[in-house]
Amino acid sequence: MDTHTKKMAQTMVALVVSGSADAGVSHRCMGRCRVLNSYKPPLYFARLLMFFLLSLIATSYVRLAGAQGNSTIKVLSLLYHPMVPKSFGNALYCGFSASMAARNYTVSAGAKIQVITPPSTDEPVIEFLNKTAHKHRDGLLVVVGPFGDSNVIEAIPILRRHRIVAFSPYTGSGAVRGWNPNLYFLTADPTGEVIALIRYSLTQLRVKRLGFMYLKGLDFGDKEYVKAVSLMSQMGFQFSSVFALNSSLRQQANNSHFDETWEVFAASRPQAVIVFGAPILDTMKFLVAILKDNRTSKTILLASSTVQIIIVAVWREALNSAGAKFVPGQVVIAGNTPLAKNEKYKAMYRFQRDMRAYLSTDEGASFFNDTEHFMHDDISGVFMVHGWLAGEVLSRALRGREWMMGRRAFMYSLYDQRRYVIDDLVFGDFGGVCGATAESQGAVCRCNQGGNTVFVKELMADGRMKIVDGGDVILQASNCDSRKVVLYAPFDSIIFYMKDDSVALNAGKALYSGASSLSGNGRLGSGDRLFVHPINGTLVGAAGQLQLEREVKLLAGVFGVVSDEMLAVPGVVFIDPLTMVPRLNRGQRNVIHLSPTVEQQFFVLSMYLETIGGRLHAVLRTNEGDEMLEILEKSLVSFGMSLTSATVLGVDTPL
After folding, report:
1. Residue 458: inside a domain
2. Where are the transmembrane segments (predicted)?
3. Are 361 and 101 in contact (CB under 8 A)?
4. Exposed (0-12), middle (13-18) or buried (19+): which is 650, by Cβ within 10 Å?
5. How does pLDDT run across 405-455, given as a tens digit for each residue?
6. Model-level pTM?
7. Do 218 and 310 belong together in one domain?
8. Residue 644 belongs to what domain range?
9. Is residue 433 in some structural domain?
10. Dihedral angle at the C-alpha atoms of 137, 139, 145, 149, nearest 10 degrees?
């Protein structure tokens, strides 16, 4: 509404108010409103005025829509890093572009997206950001990225000065996390990855000796290590060894210093190690050392998402250097997005459709000359998914009209208790500054972290990735900071599949089917503590196998079919064990009966037999014949009955 129109509307509103005033208005006017007070406007005038005002409102909306349709939203792509292979940066950019191309680079009722890219990936990231921010001071400017912790840290003052929001920065450490409205994270924080890897090592791998690797002097891994120690302590565990080396981005640590640190680490023979080093030379050297040293050559690597940038090439090189064979399951990686081929999520179907469409264009083909590239290269596919999700969230953030009111209004709108649902992937909640009272009633305050899930996968021999069962962790959306998460000690248990007895095998499978439905599902909390694993074995050798299992892995309980010899193994709890033949309750403290014992069954049976009367004959087939017969006779005597005859047979004695 222009200035002239506003004045007309204000004048006519004043006339209506004056004309319809009551006596009180006359008193306030002190006699100067007598003419107006005596004037009663006709009804048609009021209707005409109402029509005029509605027309003005409609016109303003038309002008707003027209302005919106003619607007261009500039998006600055900083999805590259000089120390990262160019193909990964290209994958991020292609993923984002696929999302934008799927909606014809149009959002919010016609507003167009203009993506600004550097003339070359050799252009320093911060210089390009600074230059672009000064050039495009008017209108909305949004950043996608930056890529890398150092770039994000250096970009913060520029983003703050120009009121720019960076969507989905790609970072690897907790140094850049924390409340900052200029950074809009769409991935779980690094502490969330540590939580997922610790949980996986203790509940799925069940290792007794877990190590931790990080590099000092880089603000990369220090905070995560402190949190990891705290989490382990809460559960009653501690790391068996720690590899902590002073390092730098450009230069390897001194060989003698590395070797000294390595020797202390390898001496404990860790079964698994969490690798939280930056993707630099010293981390690569550590990976090679793992395979070359006989004490660690079988150690399982649990790598953070940042390490995946180098893991495939370095691990293949390390295998060749050590003359070792690839072992499936030896490299496990935490990630912030699903694999591109993970069709468990509906969002991945749409991602695949958009990526195929984009890669079939001339622009897409200039980066990757294969419309199925993301299905053949899992690491590159993960980066594409990251970029695509950034585009999906940004397009939803721009659906409102707040961005037309300026950068400050747009930024505030992003933290108005925002949550984004991308098919079946959820990002948020995002919340701005609010008080304790609002927070106590459920408001999310000072939260710019939107990623809620950590995805765990396994490296295969051909460099592909495999989804692992029981690895994914879901962080509560209401808990913005993963550093507040508490892990509970797991109850690791097993069920034997007795391959030498079909009855025992079928019973074990049926029991596992029921028990596994209650097993931890990755939703952290008290409900994520029970873990049940099937183990192949035989009735003859199960006792020895159980003893070995207890010595080398974490083991708290045994469910299902057991042999008498197994019940003699100490240090493990048997929960409602099923024996192949009846067995009396020996009162063992590590045996918990949930089903009725033989003694209880005899008592109930005697109660029933009293009601029907008659002569009683018993045949018992058990290894505890005399004792069991005595218990049966005592139960019968309790109800005034006795056995006419009794026959006790051994387990293998024919009838």
Report:
1. no
2. 44-64
3. yes
4. exposed
5. 999 999 999 999 999 999 999 998 999 999 999 999 999 999 999 999 999
6. 0.87
7. yes
8. 598-649
9. no
10. 40
